[in-house]
Amino acid sequence: MYGHVRVLRNAGRRGIYCDHSSRDELGVTFLDTADTYGYGDNEVLVGKAIRGLREKVFLATKFGIVRDKSNPSVRGVNGKPEYVRASCDASLKRLGVETIDLYYQHALMRPCLLKKRLAQWQNL
């Protein structure tokens, strides 16, 4: 996450703080998160922070790192079109928005696979 949105943890409770005056004074308008941060919880917090401010921020989020909350040691990379579509739908829901300004893959792929995926993503 970029800018003046801070995730706070107090006594096991999650909260969010968004310094809107600093955002306006400093011109912070770019927020970047990912579905893998906190297993999606960070997207929920960012969504709460921008509620009522959506038109004032450029919202970016990433996909592609696959994790298992029940087994944190499991990690993979997925860029298959069906996974991308499902991940995007889940991110939209967690963020509480209808559109994401920049949606991009978090993990790098081999160049030959990237070319194939880019061609497939054009149909999404």
Write the layout of secondary structure elements.
Elements lengths: L4 E6 L2 E6 L1 H7 L3 E5 L6 H10 L7 E6 L1 E3 L7 E3 L3 H15 L6 E4 L5 H11 L3
Parallel strand pairs: 3-4, 4-7
Antiparallel strand pairs: 1-2, 5-6
In short:
The protein has helices at residues 20-26, 41-50, 81-95, 111-121; strands at residues 5-10, 13-18, 30-34, 58-63, 65-67, 75-77, 102-105. The chain is α/β, with parallel strands linked by helices. Strand 3 (30-34), helix 2 (41-50) and strand 4 form a beta-alpha-beta unit.
Polypeptide structure, described:
The chain has a three-stranded parallel β-sheet, covered by helices on one side. The protein has a two-stranded antiparallel ribbon with strand order 1-2. The protein has four helices and seven strands. It is globular. It has helices at 20-26, 41-50, 81-95, 111-121, and strands at residues 5-10, 13-18, 30-34, 58-63, 65-67, 75-77, 102-105. With 124 residues, it is α/β, with parallel strands linked by helices.
N-end to C-end Cα span: 26 Å
How do the SSEs run, as a string of H and E?
A: EEHEHEEEHEH
Q: Domains counted in the coordinates: how many?
A: 1
| SS-based class | alpha/beta
**Overall morphology:** globular
Low-confidence stretches: 1-15
Rg for CA atoms: 16 Å
Helix content: 25-40%
Spatial strand order of the main sheet: 3-4-7
Summed over residues and divided by their number, the pLDDT gives a mean of 79
- Tell me about the largest β-sheet: 3 strands, parallel
The tally of helices reads: 4
Tell me the β content: 25-35%
Count of individual beta strands: 7
